[in-house]
Specification:
Elements (H helix, E strand, L loop, with lengths): L3 H15 L8 E2 L5 E3 L2 H8 L4 E7 L2 E6 L3 E5 L4 E6 L10 E6 L5 E6 L5 E5 L2 H8 L13 H9 L6 H6 L9 H11 L12 H20 L40 E5 L2 E5 L12
Parallel strand pairs: 2-9
Antiparallel strand pairs: 1-7, 3-4, 4-5, 5-9, 6-8, 7-8, 10-11
Helix pairs in contact: 1-7, 4-7, 6-7
The chain binds a DNA duplex (16 and 16 nucleotides) through helix 6.
Length: 280
Amino acid sequence: MPELPEVEVIRCALEPLIMGKTFVSPVLYMSSTIEYPGPEEFCAFLSGRRVERIGRKGKYLLIDLDRGFLAIHLRMTGNLIYCEREQTHEDRFLRIGLPFSDGSALYFSDMRRFGRIWLVESEEELALRVLKNVGPDILDEVDRDKFCRLLAKRNSTRLKTLLLDQKFIAGMGNIYTDECLHRCGLHPLRQAGTLERAEVEKLYAVIREVLAEGIEFGGTSIRNYRNAAGALGDFQSRLAVYGRRGEHCRCCGAVIEKINAAGRGTYYCPRCQKISGHVS
DNA sequence: AGCACCACCTGTGGGC
DNA sequence: TGCCCACAGGTGGTGC
């Protein structure tokens, strides 16, 4: 489900709601959602921990505790729901309940069960166990020159594959990648090494612009996404190519096509996004 | 190195 | 109209 903008919208909503609160005993409806440590250790260690900061790296939500970190990845259909009062609601996809000492609670719900939660004791353990395959956050940790340097190391990788690679830059997903490539006029199968310096700089600027718009409009709700308060995002109405196969490009009128790239459904405009002879 | 494919899950919508 | 399977916002592992 969520890419960087959706996670950031959740992070912003959650921050004022749970900052400073203290967790009490979690309720595990599906303990395999906890990737680390074991269920008993998770419950014992989280109980009594206070929330000191809500952060994010790429698509990971990172909750700093007075001791340790709670890391959450929503994967495809995960969802965090905040309730002012702890409640037993009819959610068959409810995986974990995280109540606070003041009676409010955070619920982790996930239809497809891909989402994961980690609880680690230190920054070192966070880097080792959770973020070992996660590169720099594209909004917080990559400036223009760094983006150019990183991209130059990946000459033969296709742009679609590269932008989806969380080790390269963290935060891009399938929707925002297609939107960025379209806005830049770059073909998803074009190899990174064939870009002119100006095209790389344009790509960097557009990535940040599109992600910022995604956040501004509350994220993209296509199937399941809702923010922590249960509201739908609004960016789906602004998508230029994603999910629009057979429809007309709003820039040039050509028919949007769908191909498979990096194993994902990939939408692009064949007129705006020419490959200019660089197929591989 | 890069890529294609599978696995993990459940739901649903497009196509026949 | 009804049924079925391809596909869905992600990631990690395999093998070529």
